[in-house]
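Retro notes - structure team

What went well: the batch runner handled both jobs without manual restarts.
What didn't: labels got mixed up in the shared folder, which is why I'm recording both outputs here explicitly, each with its sequence directly above its tokens.

Job 1
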Amino acid sequence: MKKQIITIALLGTLLMLPGCGKDTSSTSASSSGAEKAAVTSEAVTDTASSAATTKKASAATEADVTTAPAEKQTEGSVQLGNILFGGYVTAETPVRSKPDANSDALIVIPEGTQIGVSESDVNGWFITEFKDKIGYIPVNSVKEIAPVSPEVCGDNVYIGSVSANARLMSGTHAYAELLAEIPSGTQIKYYILASDEKWVVASYKNIAGYVESKYIQEGESGSNGDPYAEYTGQWRSEAQWNGCDINIQISRDRECVNVEVSAHSAVADYQWNYPCVCNEDGTCLECDGKGILKRTDRTPDGDIQEPVTVYSDGEARFNIKGGTLFWDDCKEGTASQIGFSKIG
């Protein structure tokens, strides 16, 4: 009995020792799994936190992109001033970030593109804007668009003369190009520039430009000062052409003078039509290369045929001497120096 008790006590002692008589693997696995679960939980928490932070940052970036106001590129302090004039570039022209040919090109303006330019604070450079880019271009890269010529007739067009040698300029600004020198006493057509009364738009040798108004000797507007006024009306020939009586009707519209010459015979009718312009000093009408001559034949029975165009590039000049209108048909010389008297 005593021996059994001692044996049981020893067994109890052995059971209490680690790894002896008891499977501890489940306890160890459970402990290890708990540790791993804790680590995994922390990792998941960190990942979720990181994802949330990333999402928040992304949302903030998107908000910045979508809500930030769009602004034009001005490259530093470059700003457009008052527009000096409208023109066009004569070649492909880079818009520079600085008034320096070696500075960065913001964009290139294609040849012939119309732009507006403003003055910069650097001599030899304009400031311009093209496709929301604002920068510098060289002065010599842009050519000003010519003004409307006074030859386009209107009530505000005057006939005058220059009181001294005057310069015909491409514009009214400091960078304007000299187009021609107008000698003192030259008669010109002009109109006053509405935006600046210190300048007029004048025409000289078929070139339209700007002249300082201080050089203009005022003339009269309308028909009293109109170089065409003496020509307009009906004229009748003093001689016949190929057995035909000839009549001339000269009229003017807003843009030019129209000359219609008609001749009639027993066998045919002739009709010339010339668009003309008055020459520089108003001494004659120049009709260059656009005159049309049509002939309408008639049969002996009096039937009228369809008009036939004889030519469509006729040239002529009409001038008045001593109250007589002379017609010089330069195309074929067929009506050279025939005189006409005014009948209305």
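Job 2
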Amino acid sequence: MHFLIDGYVRGVIPDYQMSAFLMAVYFRKMDFEETAIFTDLMLHSGIVVDLSSIPGVKVDKHSTGGVGDKVSLILAPMVAACGVPVPMISGRGLGHTGGTLDKLESIPGFRTNLSLDEYKSAIGEIGVVMIGQTHEIAPADGKMYALRDVTGTVECVPLIAGSIMSKKLAEGIDALVLDVKTGKGAFMQSDEEAIELATTLIQIGNRFGKKTVGFLTDMNQPLGYAIGNWLEVVECIECMKGRIVPDLMEVACTLGGAMVMLGGKARSIQDGIVKCRDVIRNGKAWEKFVALVRRQGGDVSYVEHPEHYPKSTFVADVKCPRSGYIDNIDALEFGFVGIMLGAGRMKIDDIVDPKAGILVTKKNGESVSAGETLAVLYTEHTHVLEQAINRIERAFSIATKPSPSPALIRAFIDEHGVHPWQNRLTL
């Protein structure tokens, strides 16, 4: 395996041979020992960042991706405001899922392409940094990911685990919290698949000496109300200023509580949740977010006054066809319609319109009347609006009576196994 990966990075092994290997892994899988070796080789194909000179336990979070998942934008400054350094290397959106880098880059001037020296400097100065993968970090994964996309081998647990953990282990962290999504809008649509992935990631993290825990979270409807890059930034700004978006803040505070606990600033996850909610209430999380934007070159005037941001040319309401209760919202369909509107990409070189997206006005369990607005669409592409409206209308299932909402956070997972999560937050 070393011969294969080292040769691929050096250009000795051609794409067609690596494609054959990826396809073999996709169909035959790898056992844990093979997956751990695979991860280690990709990790050491580049630089492993040393942040030991920076005080504190460095903790990051990784999400397996979803629709409307803008948690990192709240989580990183919130946890940093609690005194835990957060070095975060994120990715772009691909397929129906959004990417943290695209959201951050919708802020004019925000730089996600910092050098490793700038990365270290930022984490040392303000306690938080959010960048993209550099060419020095896990270059084998960078080459391999593009190949996995075109060979249809993305959804394979050993390959996903190796890709995620090689980057996370290379960024200089001491501990990691995972948000593993399950449901219609997730890559792992069944709980069983999601638990398999989470368990593999946790075992790898702990094998490499990084305390790793995870949460299984629901992705059957979009998280929060905003889908689309700038729209999601605005929602995060409002939350850091005190707006209550129940599902978004439940996930953010729960993951944050675990990060603060792993960072040694809380006795338990519950104690960490309390500390996270405190820094939201007292404005310290918002102050840290502004400092992050300023430190990475973003125009702070737009985050302080979002109303000054350019508006989409075309705005359309999606109306409810009949009265009843929202029984289900198809997150996957929202993700694909968001791409139609310009908010995402199907190919790595597609151009993203930061203004485009969808604002949901009704969520699962809420009552709705015929003719009431279910969602608002924003785009520059007038030719897609009619189809987009029809698809979003059909993405809402309406019942005659309300049904109970499933738990947003399904389980807590650590090296000892899967545990039911009972701590449902009241915000």
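One thing worth noting from job 2: The domain at 311-399 is CATH 3.90.1170.30 (Aldehyde Oxidoreductase; domain 3).
We'll revisit the folder naming next retro.
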